[in-house]
Amino acid sequence: MKLRENRLERRLQVSGILLILGLLSESLCLLWARPLSFLGLVSVGGVLLFAGMVVYLVSLLAIRVSPQETAGRSLQRD
Amino acid sequence: MRFETTLIMALLLFSVTLIGVIVARPEITVTRSGKIMAFLALFLLPILCAAMGVSSELERSKTTKFCLSCHIMEAYGQSLRVDDPSYLAAAHFQNHRVPADNACYTCHTNYAMFGSVKAKMAGLRHIYVYYLTTPPAPENIKLHEAYNNRECLHCHLGARSFEEGAVHNADPDLLQAVKANKLSCISSGCHEVVHKVATLNAVKMWKGQP
User: Fold this and answer.
1) Which of A47, A15, A44 is nearest to A30 (CA)?
2) Residue among B16, B57, B124 minimizing CB distance to A37
3) Is B8 helix (H, G, I), strand (E, B) or coil?
4) Which tens digits make up the pLDDT trace of B77-109?
5) CA-CA distance, B57 to B76, in Å (whole number)?
6) A-chain residue closest to B50, CA distance
7) pLDDT computed for residue B118 by the predictor
8) Is B64 within 8 Å of chain A by CB?
9) Residue of higher predicted confidence among A78 and B92
């Protein structure tokens, strides 16, 4: 699978991959009932999930409307 | 597998599938429904999964099976099966004075404010000692601090056998001293035999199921 050229779509893909890895590590920790599994859940799973969500939120914040699009919108309003 | 774990695994599988769709086809997020799906899959569901996972792990860490999963605790697990009512832990476990599934936690948690948090922090210290240092022999394991009667009184306070027991009332000051934590329940001459793992080989074991 290739990452997309479009920056937003690429960020969504990176976010998704991080989240999938985090969720898979969480599922492994839940199946492995040992004292270390909780540490694994928090340290590995938690960090991956947090990173994935941050990348997703950053991708939302980073959406910028292009100057042409802004001009088009203001013309429509006029 | 516990029902709770099965439920979380199903939610994890559902989340991974939804996220997989977005990773494979990120262009679907152009539409309004795609944006909602992305918010659900990339933000809300992971938070829900993480919260449920942590909650499940914390609940599981209270179980007797979890505590005894460390090799060093095996002797303490055996001490719950001693066929002698003078063994305090065994008498509580075998007679369901504590829930058999949460036996260790019920007596060794702290019933004061933030007690559960303190118990978890102590658990983390156990992991550190177990994996990163040379742990003591089972018979040399000591409590972090003197056992507080508060943990016993959490259940026994107000109970008839405790309040009106002949031995407890033999000395008029005894009950007050116990309730004020000035005289320990497990002090010498009282309920002093708790686990006593050093002599487990010499005692008879109960074969029944708790």
Assistant:
1) A44
2) B57
3) helix
4) 999 999 999 999 999 999 999 999 999 999 999
5) 22
6) A46
7) 85
8) no
9) B92
Choose the closest CB to B23 out of A6, A13, A39: A13
Taking an 8 Å cut-off on Cβ atoms, the answer to whether A24 and B16 are in contact is: yes
Q: Are B15 and B50 in contact (CB under 8 A)?
A: no
Residue B82 pairs in a beta bridge with B205
Q: How far is CA B24 from CA A20, A63, B19, B33, B201, in A?
A: 12, 20, 9, 17, 61
Amino acid at A40: G
pLDDT digits (tens, 9 = 90+) for B49-88: 999 999 998 888 899 999 998 889 999 999 999 999 999 9
CA B87 to chain centre: 20
Which 3-state string (H, E, C) describes A18-73? HHHHHHHHHHHHHHCCCHHHHHHHHHHHHHHHHHHHHHHHHHHHCCCCCHHHHHHH
pLDDT higher than 60, residue A47: yes
Q: What residues in B contact A6, CB-CB < 8 Å?
A: 26
Distance CA A34, CA B105 (A): 16
Q: What pLDDT, on a 0 to 100 scale, did the predictor assign at position B11?
A: 95
Query: B25: which 2 tokens?
Result: 């086809």
Name residues 36-55 of chain A within 8 A of B (Cβ): 36-39, 41-42, 45-46, 49, 52-53
pTM of the complete model: 0.78
